Amino acid sequence: MARSPAGIEHLELENLSDGQLRELIQHARDTLSERITRRLDEFRLMAREAGFEISVTKIGEGEGRRGRRRRSSNGGADTGDHRAQVAPKYRNPDNHSETWSGRGRKPKWVEDKMAGGKSLDDLLISHGREREKAEPVEA
Q1: Residue range 16-62, pLDDT digits in tens
Q2: How many domains is the chain built from?
Q3: Rounded to an integer, what distance in angstroms lies between the CA atom of residue 41 and that of residue 35?
């Protein structure tokens, strides 16, 4: 067990009521908070004298400049994924609902097609051909 700091050995905590213990704990927290505030003020003053500015926030409260993120396009609902959507670059010729952006690990259908002799160029989405199919040209 840790040794008690000098000066508090005489306290008989077992003899204190629950309310007295809570009051003692709150007094200790208040004292620590005041000491920390004084020290932070000293650090801010020293930093200002050296040409710096210090800002401190409690852990879990507020976001500093480094923690700010852009709001998502879904009305501010935070899904946790802040990456931009990437347009698909490859499409499965047998199942047009299966696409791949070309980033990350190859999907199983891409690996299967390549094992069957196709190249990635064969799976490319040709945006020009897609438009021609969607919009027939009148003569």
Answers
A1: 899 999 999 999 999 999 999 999 999 999 999 999 988 888 888 76
A2: 2
A3: 10
pLDDT of residue 131: 45
- Structural domain including 27 reads 16-49
The one-letter amino acid at 78: D
Q: Partners of 99 in the beta sheet?
A: 91
pLDDT tens digits for range 81-139: 777 888 999 999 999 899 999 998 999 999 999 999 999 999 998 865 544 454 555 54
Phi, psi dihedrals of residue 97, rounded to the nearest 5°:
-80, -15
- SS3 labels along 47-80: HHHCCCCCCCCCCCCCCCCCCCCCCCCCCCCCCC
Q: Is residue 126 assigned to a domain?
A: yes
How many Cβ atoms are within 10 Å of 123's Cβ, its own excluded?
19
Nearest to 98 by CA among 81, 77, 84, 112: 112
In a domain, residue 5? The reply is no
